From TrEMBL:
Protein name per its UniProtKB record: Uncharacterized protein
Domain of life: Bacteria
Organism: Bacillus safensis
PANTHER family reported in the protein's UniProt record: ATP-DEPENDENT HELICASE IRC3-RELATED, TYPE I RESTRICTION ENZYME ECOKI R PROTEIN
Cellular component per GO, a single term: cytosol
Cited Gene3D superfamilies: P-loop containing nucleotide triphosphate hydrolases (3.40.50.300)
C-alpha cells in the first residue's frame, strides 16, 4: 500500500480486512500477543487462555524488575502550552 492509501484506512477497515482473510481460509487460527490492542478481540474473539507477567515471574520464566525511577520536572508537571500566533 502507498502512504496515501494508509492515511485513509481506519480501525474498522483494518479489522474487516483482517477478518475477511481469516474467514477465507478454512483452517484453525491461533492468535498470540504480548501486547493486546483493543481490536485483538474483534479479530480473534475472547481469549481462551491468559498467562500474565506476574505468573511468568512466579513460575521462573521471567525476571521481575524494579519500577522505574520517576523524575519530576517542571515540564512533566506543567506540560507544554502554545499561544495562538498573531498575524
Amino acid at each position: 500500500m502507498t502512504e496515501e492509501e494508509l492515511e485513509f484506512r481506519d480501525q474498522n477497515d483494518y479489522i474487516s480486512q483482517y477478518r475477511r482473510v481469516i474467514d477465507y481460509f478454512d483452517a484453525a487460527c491461533l492468535g498470540l500477543t504480548a501486547t493486546p490492542a483493543l481490536h485483538t478481540t474483534d479479530i480473534f474473539g475472547m481469549p481462551i487462555f491468559k498467562y500474565s507477567y506476574s505468573e511468568a515471574v512466579l513460575d521462573g520464566y521471567l525476571v521481575d524488575h524494579e519500577p522505574p525511577y520517576l523524575f519530576k520536572t517542571e515540564l512533566s508537571q506543567v506540560g507544554i502550552t502554545f499561544e495562538k500566533m498573531r498575524k
